[in-house]
Please model this.
Amino acid sequence: MRGSHLRPTYRQGTALLPALLILGMVTIVVVLFFSMSTVQMRSSASQAAVHDVTTLQDMAMNNAIGQMRMGTTESKALWISQPGAIRTYIANSGLGSRVYKLYSARDMVVENSMLISASAQNLETDVPNDWDARPGTYTDLNEPALDEAGDFVFPIVDPRVMDMVSPTYPDSKVPEGFQYSQHLAVSNASINGVRLPGNTASMQRLPMPVRWIYVLQDGSIGVMDDSTSPKFTPFSGQSLASKENPIVGRYAFWTDDESAKININTASEAIFWDTPRCATNREIEFAVKPPVRNEVQRFGGHPATTCLSTVFFPGEKLVPGSTTMNQKLEQLYAITPRVNADGGIMAGNSVPVNFDTDRLYASVDELLIDDPSDISGFPLAGGKRTVQALFAQEPARVKRLRFFLTSESRAPELTAAGTPRVSIWPVSYRPEPQNNKRTSFDNVSAFASTLGKHPYHFRRSGAASNMDDFSNYYNTEANDPFGVGMIHNNHLAQYIIEGARSVKQGYAKSMTEKYDSRHASWSTSAYNMGSSLVAMLEYIRQTNGNDSTHSTKNVSPRVPVDAYTQTSANWIGTDTLGQVAAVNMTYYSAPLNTDNRSLKRNQNDEGNDRVWNTGIGREFTVSEFGLVFILAAENPASGAAPKLNPDLVSKLKLPAGVKAIQVGVVAEGFCAAQGYTMIAPSSSFNVTQLGSLRIDTAGFGARGVGGAVNALGPPPVQDTVSGEPYMGWGSLLHNVSHLQYLCKIKPKETPQSGRMSTGDWWVGWGGSGGYWMYADSDTNAHSQISSLRKSDFDTPANTLSNPAMYSRGYFLVPSNATSMTISSSRTGGVMVDRCLEIRVGNQRDGDYGDRRLMVEIPQNLVVPVPAAPAALGLTFSKRYKDVRTSGATRFGAPEIIDVNDVVRTWVVRHGDYRLPYQRLREGAGAVGVDARKRLMVPHPAWDPATISAGRLLITRTIPQIHAFTKSGGKPHKVGGPGGVSPTFGDGMTSSSLVNGVTYNSDVRPDFVIDSASATFRANVPANYPYSVNPTDTRDWDNGTGIAPDGAYWNKPDDGAQVFDGSIPPYFSQNPWDGVNINQRPANQTTAPNQLIPSPVMFGSLPSAPSTGLQWTTFLFRPDLTPGSGHLGSADHSTKGNLLGAPPDHTLLDWFWMPVVQPYPISEPFSTAGKVNMNYRIVPFTNITRATGLHAVLKSEELLAIPTNAGMTYKDYTQANANGKWRHYIDAAATLTQWEETFNQGRFFKNTGEVCEQFLVPKDQGIPSGSGTVVRNAMRNFWNNHRLTGDNTLERPYANIYPRLTTRSNTFRVHFRAQTLRKARSSDPQTFLEGKDTIIAERQGDALVERAIDPNDPALMTDDYDYINKARNGTLSSAKSLDNLYSWRIRSIRRFSR
Model:
């Protein structure tokens, strides 16, 4: 019984244990299974989060690109870029339109009208003070992380680069132009988290907070509102957050403008050079050491002149010379691709520079490692490359400088209206192989400026022709790959003229309305604007007048455009150098030549001032005209007295007591294209209507040429061949056809037979050519002058037996007469009464169809009777023959006015000799010409209309009154050393180009009529409100070196001869300081970007030649004109104040200069390395990064010539005493004006606006408390430096302008993206830190670029055929090229946390 009881109990316990074991094992397996499942689920979730964060990263980048795309393609608007924003402006008013924020914000696009305050314009409201207390709403994109070495790394900008709050150099290494603050720039609101430099650099912080953009499960996006418990607020058209559509991620971004940085592939370090303009040691250094071949760091305006020392050697100006300076320069050139220091000024200026072979940097990080391929010739493997010497002591520095540097920055070369700019480099175009002068420079430039159906550059075929380059006279469409021919240049002119009629430049009025609104037909007839724009194309045409490069074709030696060997003796003459004939567009180039369109104004405007205009050439016009009265023969009343010129007395059958007076004409030539290469011209002038001259003496009556002595006297002797009186005359021709070998020029190109002269008087740098230049003669018949045989009753015939039409007529006066009255018998006709007509030609034969000036013989012109010549021949024919007679003294001193002759001259009314060139015909087609409009007027010292009666009586006894200057500009003492000096002024008061300046007499500008006189301004419309006084407008140019200042149009410097150890070029008056093509040293260059940096060079061209406004050129610098200001300023027009009229610099937007060295920095309609003027960083205005602007400005030296230096500033012997007149630019003080502009909520719409900003010289005590203070101080500064001419004032802007932009093609998007998981218990419309979860995160940046495909088929359609639209008058409706730009992400860089 007992055992039976126990057995059942035992069995139950035994069964339980195995069951428990099995249950435990199953539990373990189940737990393990679920554990493994959880790990796999978490792994899958993590992978999904990574995938999602990539999507969020893409959303951030695409959001930024979308903003940029919208901003750059807004209809009827122009756009600008800056770090953090794209701004648009209404094209036809310039008023703000929208701001497209390039960072994550609540309102991504804001109407400008909603931004009421300056702070709002700077978007400062997007940066709240307490951003760090709202982590669910804002994130700091610049939050640092630790790298592997435990050092802080910042995603965008490392604040530790600012090692001092107020940097002092050289102790500090802060890049120039950089600083940050705890306060926003405009509102002065503080920003939490900003830590300035202190004791510990690692404590510095510079937060850049932007809003998170949240992403819902269905892809909807929005931001958190600004309530105390932030809620999700969807963007327009997006869904609300809910449990079914929860928040799954968020991203933030801010976009930097790469063009606000310094491009390490284009910048290097500038070594400044400029054409000498005065006599100082610095200018002499320029003459002695000009840039050599490939020395791009010395080419003004080249991207290589943007200074890397701004970042790497801040506060230092690197000038070659000392060992330390040279080492630093070499370090910078070592890290710069292509640019080298193995020649040029770094190697004694004796050898050219060889570009190195470094490849371009793909990123800023590559800057750290050297690429020694320029030494070895081959790139080396990465493992063999070493750290650049510049960073050897501090390799981590490169990382900290990323915020200031870029390897990719590119700016568009389109107008504000989105149309192609016109290249200012002339491209050689002669299709026939034997004449093809096209160079590799031409090819690169042409490639960069060709788009669609048309080349947007000037094509030049022949500088000698006055018809080729604007018509298909020779080069027809059959020879042109574009099927257009040379008429293309005519079409190009129409294109820019139509652009000037446009109101798409950000102003309410057009440039045409600004300059031509005096005429009712201004909308269709751009007289001033058309003439000026054609002049700009002609300026391009005459650039590169002595090309030293060799053609890519098999043509050797290279023949430059200014060397001619013409076979036609009747045309331009043999071996004329340096001359470029203006194209006769009034004849050859429809529709520009159509009446009342652009160049031919046949409509009255306040008097009969009808005028035809042309562009510009490098030729001579007439600046002064004179009648010369010679006592050629006399038969004394007393038979005992000897006869003067007995042969002529006999031939004229002069009665006793009669003198024969011969009247000749002289003219002073003037070339406004002053500078180098030098010019040996072919030129001539013709005077008609001389037959109407009469001489009257008391008791003798008026007599014409050859008139009877008295009623019983002998009749004029008849020519047995022509039947005309021997004494008859009408037209005269004077010319210079072979000046190149009539003087001591003798370049290799001159035939040996021509090198027979001793004349050393010619100075071929332009400006005044003197009247000796017309002392040559011509033995050929001429189509426009009668060639009937007319004896001159001179000495027996010699080899020049029938010279050209000299003065053959003789006026007869009694021997006892002491004075004679000159008059004209002309009445009526198409010209005004009593006028002679001067026709100026650019060839031996004259080409007299166009350029005509009128000289009126005033009433009461009384002059003394001349005495017998003291030294020269008794007739003009004899004098000209003596000048040209072959022998040791041939053309040695071609004086044709004797000291005893009587001279009266007419001068240009206002002294602006550019206008007699551009104004072809005064009174074309008119019945009469308003005398107030006439250019030539009597010299003020004898003008009967202006001087007092008492003074008039005195002048009637003065033999010679003139203002002649010699070739080169020195005053000309007529008749030799003891001759009569010129008179500048009215004989009582001396005139001066710049009031208050006392000039050295040898270099005083040729300025005759005082600017305060009524005559000076009589041609100006009565209601014109602006000054035309050169002292006020400052629209005159400094001559090169020691050349006098004057009315020049700033010719590009083609280069003078190389310094030979004597007096440097630019400072000597040798007959020829030019460089001949077969003698140019190998190291000398005429590279494109050296010759013409930018269209600012056009600034010395007259801006209103049709109206005839003197001393008024385009204003590409700050307005210094007192009173009402300068015509070229905004809101000014030829009619007076005109609200909305654009400033002159608006024209600059239509042109560009491609950069072709050391590699094609310019691509089709874009250029790398430009720096954005709008450097203001939004919304983080507490950060200032003006480093790029500092780098641009650091390269320049401005020249300021003191007002009191008139006696010495052109004196080579006073160079030491003249001191230092070149000044570096104080960038910080200069940019005070920028900061004031930004702080007022304004930004730069066009790059040309840089011309309105004063450049502040260093070390001149200019205060810089505000932009207003700077401007006032600079006006005072320039008032004390009034000898500084327009070209000198504008030259720094010419170099700065091409390196700046207001629009960028490259941007860097800094992003941060996170995938999120909402807790089930949290509000679906919020994100709670610590409760909701961040699953994955990614931070980095992406380089984004916009570009246009030059092969896009759309460019071949009519929509983008801008030139034909211009020809059809529909350019204003053309589409913008901005619509064709595509966007691409060039690279993405990760930032690890």
User: Anything to note?
Assistant: The chain has a mean pLDDT of 84.
